[in-house]
Amino acid sequence: MSEELSRDINIKEPRWDQGTFMGRAKHFFMVTDPRNVLLSSETLEEARVIVENYRAGTVTPGLTEDELWRAKYIYDSAFHPDTGEKMFVIGRMSAQVPMNMSITGCMLTFYRTTPAVVFWQWVNQSFNAVVNYTNRSGDAPITMNQLGAAYVSATTGAVVTALGLKSLATRLPPIVSRFVPFAAVAAANCINIPFMRQRELKYGIPVMDENGNRLGESANAAKQAIIQVVVSRIGMAVPAMAIPPVIMNALEKKAFMKRFPVLNAPVQVGLVGLCLVFATPLCCALFPQKSSMSVSGLEADLQERIRQLSPDTTTVYFNKGL
């Protein structure tokens, strides 16, 4: 008869040490695994029940430690860490590779005309808006008016940026024009993410002590979280949008690509996908998901409240979002 699984496994935290880059990378390779998108609602619900029961002290009979961690990572890939709600499927980090390889591949293929630039930048920023909202930090609700205003501001800013860069690139060599989509995406991320998470900048995100006790909300923590996410997202785009253009520029001069120009888009999408499989988890791992900052970096009134509630606390922790 097998032993019952220990109740001392801390599944509130990732399986690997998040104080090291390698530990974070292993964690995010599991969270961003594209195969998780294909999991059925029944599998997701089964994982949720296993995780929530274990957290409540109830162990599913016959459950092994590996099965528990597998359920935890299925749960993490589909449910929001702060609200516990099931996330919209294309907004999940496990959908990043298949969605981004398709959109980015098309952006890199169809970059020569203004209508194509506008359309694919709009598609990309609409997708980014879904991802940014789905992976926001905190549990405060956002109204449809706030969401609509943020979406319009973010997508308009991104499209205008792309068109401005495209007009500048017309006076530069063709190889430089190929990098316009990357420059536009990098600039747009700096616009889209703060706009879609502007409520956090205004009202703050939850900050906790090392034991997970909520101490208040901080806009300063939100600023740090959003900056880290912007850096990570730009990092994700670098390999996928910088390497394929160089390869495609060389391939398009080959006889077989001239003979079969229809191969351009699928080859480009494939190259982007190969880059994203590695870039997505590795760039998510640049910063810990459970980010931290010194109490002295918080707002004055929150510092005072923490000194009264928890005088020994010198560092607070918060979910930075993705």
Automatic annotation (TrEMBL):
**PANTHER family given for it?**
SIDEROFLEXIN (PTHR11153), SIDEROFLEXIN-3 (PTHR11153:SF20)
Task: Report if keyword Phosphoprotein is assigned.
Answer: no
Query: What are the record keywords, sorted?
Result: Amino-acid transport, Membrane, Mitochondrion, Transmembrane, Transmembrane helix, Transport
Q: Name one GO cellular component term.
A: mitochondrial inner membrane
Indicate how the chain sits in the lipid bilayer: Multi-pass membrane protein
Highest taxon of source: Eukaryota
Annotated membrane-spanning segments are 149-169, 175-195, 225-247, 267-287
Name the UniProt record assigns to this protein? Sidoreflexin
The Gene Ontology biological process annotation of the record reads: serine import into mitochondrion
Reactions the enzyme catalyzes: L-serine(in) = L-serine(out)
So what family is this one in? Belongs to the sideroflexin family.
GO MF annotations, alphabetized: monoatomic ion transmembrane transporter activity
Native source species: Poecilia latipinna (sailfin molly)
Q: Where are the annotated coiled coils located?
A: none
Pfam families assigned: SFXNs (PF03820)
Q: Which cellular compartments is it found in?
A: Mitochondrion membrane
Explain the purpose of this protein.
Mitochondrial serine transporter that mediates transport of serine into mitochondria, an important step of the one-carbon metabolism pathway. Mitochondrial serine is converted to glycine and formate, which then exits to the cytosol where it is used to generate the charged folates that serve as one-carbon donors.
| InterPro entries in the cross-refs | Mtc (IPR004686)
